[in-house]
Design a protein that fits this description.
two-stranded antiparallel sheet, 20 helices, 4 strands
């Protein structure tokens, strides 16, 4: 009899991953709703994607609600641009440093339970942040940091569940649906934030919308989502792959050129997105004050119409960008297997000039500014679903959560963890006087940095195209390099020996 502790046995994290019932040694056929190798029916799998998409939308709604009411928060706490940028930075840092922990847990334990606990904690902390008084800005920073716990528990795991439910083009389609939630949720954050403030006349209420929806998400996760078998739907099911140590996983990922280069490219996307997400509404408001179209904000609530419009632009451009990216990739795959990184590179390189023009035209034409922002965000959004798909097909199933965590850490550490604070600090340093003109000019000059970072990200994706074929083939034909322990009889007892010993 085989030793149950052998490293070739399945993960024992789920109650739905056991063998089916047998009858005289024959495995009975699974019931109709369990026909898929993943152990989840097609209908249940699609419902699962819907629930995961809903939670992802809530995550981004909450993340950018603060950006939608940033002007009110600055006046309420009497803080500078640098401190305003810290609101996004502390959240991203918490999210980033906890991602490896949840990536490690997600590759080894029940992913549904991990997500439920994390989202419940996120909902409670978000609600608590809405009760911070004006003398305790540090408490708002602390609670925003703790929100990262919930998002880290979800973002590292959810894509791997989709990967275990679908393969090839169907997986790409489902990931595109999942990543619609990023631009849509972000835009909804601005819209909900600005609308709630205009009705309640208090920015605190803007932070009390998502916690209730978060609790609904926990209930849906518990009763709708079913944990699939890791890698079973692919050529190499989980029970045929060896679980390796975290250190071995990291060494393998660091040797994966496509994974590393696409991660650096995605870091540029995160840098630009993080900068625009926090500062675009405030920049547009300051441009309106500079040109005389708007009145300065002397008391809260401030004019949040720019947040509302920017939110709508983000929703539409995000949907259009994700769809365009996926469709362009599908058509280009007919001609070249390097389609995915090439489309990502094109998206960033095309976004750069439009983002530059949106910043420079802000003082001349509000309409032109919004048009250029729309075009820039559309091209930028072409990356979301494709980058996730690249990771999933160049990394083997038992390392995907770890890879997601690693990508989150690196892209946020060098991307949107630093960019909001950096833009704010550069803006403060460029002010030569305390005036409405320099409030606008300093932020305008600091935001120009985004265009140059986008060009650098495009270069990384072009480099990814050089290695993508080789790394995809290695992942699809992966065979453990170390000797797999097998069981052979020896003196009437079960004994483990290496494969090489038998071959010799």
């Amino acid at each position: 009899m085989a030793d149950e502790s052998a490293d070739t046995t399945p993960f024992f994290s789920d109650d739905n991953e056991e063998e089916g019932p047998t009858n005289n040694g024959a495995v009975l056929s699974p019931p109709e709703d369990e026909e898929s190798a993943s152990g989840v029916s097609d209908r249940r799998a699609k419902l699962t994607v819907g629930v995961l998409c809903f939670v992802n939308l809530l995550n981004y709604m909450d993340r950018f609600t603060v950006a939608g009411v940033l002007t009110d928060i600055e006046h309420y706490f009497s803080i500078s641009d640098g401190k305003s940028g810290l609101l996004q930075t502390v959240f991203i840092c918490s999210y980033m440093f906890l991602a490896p922990l949840f990536g490690y847990l997600g590759d080894r334990y029940n992913r549904k339970v991990i997500m439920c606990v994390g989202i419940f904690f996120w909902s409670v902390v978000t609600l608590a942040s809405s009760y911070v008084s004006k003398d305790y800005f540090w408490a708002l920073l602390l609670t925003r940091g703790l929100v990262g716990v919930g998002e880290a528990s979800y973002s590292t795991i959810a894509p791997t569940i989709i990967a275990d439910l679908f393969v090839k083009e169907k997986r790409t389609n489902m990931l595109s649906i999942f990543y619609f939630a990023i631009p849509v949720g972000s835009g909804m954050g601005y819209i909900v934030g600005s609308k709630v403030v205009s009705v309640a006349k208090d920015w605190h209420w803007a932070l009390r919308v998502t916690p209730g929806l978060g609790l609904l998400a926990v209930i849906l996760l518990m009763f709708v989502v079913k944990e699939p078998k890791r890698g079973a739907i692919e050529a190499h099911p989980e029970h045929m792959l060896h679980r390796t140590s975290w250190l071995a996983d990291m060494k393998a990922l660091c040797k994966n050129s496509s994974f590393l280069l696409s991660t650096f490219g995605f870091t540029a996307v995160a840098f630009v997105t993080g900068s625009l997400a926090l500062w675009a509404p405030a920049f547009l408001f300051r441009a309106g004050v500079f040109t005389g179209e708007k009145q300065p904000c002397l008391k809260v609530p401030c004019d949040n119409s720019d947040s509302l419009i920017f939110g709508g632009v983000t929703v539409v451009s995000g949907i259009l960008g994700v769809v365009s990216g996926v469709q362009a990739s599908k058509k280009l795959r007919i001609k070249t297997p390097r389609a995915d990184p090439l489309v990502c590179a094109a998206g960033l390189l095309l976004a750069a000039p439009f983002l530059y023009l949106s910043v420079m035209f802000a003082q001349a034409s509000t309409v032109a500014t919004y048009v250029f922002i729309f075009l820039g965000e559309t091209f930028l959004s072409m990356n979301w679903a494709i980058v996730a798909d690249i990771l999933l097909y160049v990394v083997i199933p038992t390392r995907r959560s770890t890879a997601e965590a690693f990508q989150i850490v690196l892209s946020h550490l060098l991307g949107d963890a630093v960019s909001p604070y950096l833009i704010g600090v550069v803006s403060d340093s460029m002010k030569t006087s305390n005036s409405y003109m320099w409030d606008f000019r300093s932020l305008q000059m600091s935001l120009l940095l985004c265009s140059f970072v986008a060009v650098g990200g495009g270069a990384f994706f072009l480099a990814t195209a050089l290695f993508i074929e080789k790394d995809r083939h290695l992942a699809e034909s992966y065979v453990p390099s170390d000797d797999a322990p097998i069981v052979v009889p020896k003196r009437g007892r079960s004994t483990k020996v290496t494969v090489s010993s038998v071959l010799i």
